């Protein structure tokens, strides 16, 4: 078996939120394509040390602050690579192409306009997604209080919402769904509807979230690439199926014990990390999560944390 080439790569984010891309030289592997700066680790070198060395050699900068973003293993016909990608938010010096490579600062929404190696594509989605994914309580209860709590959650910084509503008539579901989507959009937050694609379109959602049963009921992607698709996963088989249907990201649960599913055996952080390491997309940790666990989640390969009780502001107050 061909050895896997371990690469440390960086997503440099400037004060305007733009991301730095570098163009590969035409005479190299995947030549002419744009990539996230970085390079092959030396034997025995840590990711942090390799990242610092590569960015100094390639760009002439010194890394000040960084954190894990995503790990991606990709198999090309002629080689396999493991990309250990870190988000770099602070550095000293001005990035320049010290090896003659063209550079470009790119708005995150425009990253797809730059042709990239296949291994780099999941990094774009990881950069698009925020670190917190709120799941709404399944029972609306009093509509006005539900909307007030949703707005309070958005005011706390939530920018990605799974609208998961049970026990409503179709008319009420569409009415409340449209109101919730409009409120989220007014806060520049994206909404994924947990249900079917038709209702997601009817309420103006930005995408669809498949529960594990719906995930295995599909063999192809159930909506266009212009909308987000997420899936709830519990094991390696689910993550493989999520990749098969073209999911943009996944939830993996339960990581820790939860009050809502006390009999479910938690994965624990080590098992979570092992499963995520084999995934080909960003994965949120779910189950016993709260914002205080973000650093732990990042260290174990997560995009961030997802939850109801830990992120729903009204639930904390009540």
Structure description:
By secondary structure, this protein is α/β, with parallel strands linked by helices. It has two domains: 118 residues, Nucleoside Triphosphate Pyrophosphohydrolase (Alpha-Beta Complex); 186 residues, TIM Barrel (Alpha-Beta Barrel), CATH 3.20.20. It has ten helices and 15 strands. The chain has an eight-stranded parallel beta barrel with strand order 8-9-10-11-12-13-14-15. A hairpin with a 4-residue loop joins strand 5 and strand 6. Helix 3 packs parallel to helix 4. It starts with a strand and ends with a helix.
List keywords for this structure.
318 residues, alpha/beta, TIM Barrel, 2 domains, eight-stranded parallel β-barrel, four-stranded mixed sheet, 10 helices, 15 strands
Task: Give a short summary of the structure.
The chain folds into 2 domains: 4-121, Nucleoside Triphosphate Pyrophosphohydrolase (Alpha-Beta Complex), CATH 3.90.79.10; 132-317, TIM Barrel, CATH 3.20.20.70. The mean pLDDT is 94. It is α/β, with parallel strands linked by helices.
């Amino acid at each position: 078996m061909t050895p896997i080439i371990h690469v440390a790569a960086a997503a440099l984010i400037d004060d305007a939120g733009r991301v730095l891309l570098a163009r590969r030289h035409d005479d190299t592997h995947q030549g002419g394509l744009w990539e996230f700066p970085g390079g092959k680790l030396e034997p025995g070198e840590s990711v942090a040390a390799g990242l610092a060395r590569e960015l100094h050699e390639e760009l002439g900068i010194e890394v000040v602050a960084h954190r894990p973003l995503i790990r991606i293993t990709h198999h090309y016909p002629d080689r396999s690579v493991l990309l250990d990608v870190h988000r770099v938010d602070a550095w000293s010096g001005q990035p320049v192409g010290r090896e003659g490579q063209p550079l470009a600062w790119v708005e995150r929404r425009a990253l797809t306009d730059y042709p990239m190696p296949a291994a780099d594509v999941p990094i774009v989605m990881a950069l698009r997604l925020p670190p917190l994914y709120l799941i709404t309580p399944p029972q609306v209860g009093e509509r006005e209080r539900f909307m007030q709590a949703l707005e309070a959650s958005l005011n706390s910084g939530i920018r990605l919402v799974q609208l998961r509503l049970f026990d409503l008539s179709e008319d009420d579901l569409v009415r409340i769904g449209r109101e919730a989507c409009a409120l989220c959009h007014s806060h520049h937050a994206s909404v994924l509807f947990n249900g079917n694609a038709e209702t997601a379109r009817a309420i103006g959602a930005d995408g669809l979230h498949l529960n594990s049963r719906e995930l295995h009921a599909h063999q192809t992607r159930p909506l266009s690439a212009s909308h987000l698709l997420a899936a709830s996963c519990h094991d390696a088989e689910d993550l493989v199926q999520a990749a098969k249907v073209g999911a943009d990201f996944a939830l993996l649960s339960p990581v820790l014990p939860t009050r809502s599913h006390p009999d479910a055996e938690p994965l624990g952080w080590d098992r979570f990390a092992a499963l995520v390491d084999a995934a080909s997309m960003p994965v949120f940790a779910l189950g016993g999560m709260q914002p205080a666990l973000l650093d732990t989640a990042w260290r174990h390969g997560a995009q961030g944390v997802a939850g109801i009780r830990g992120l729903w502001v009204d639930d904390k107050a009540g």
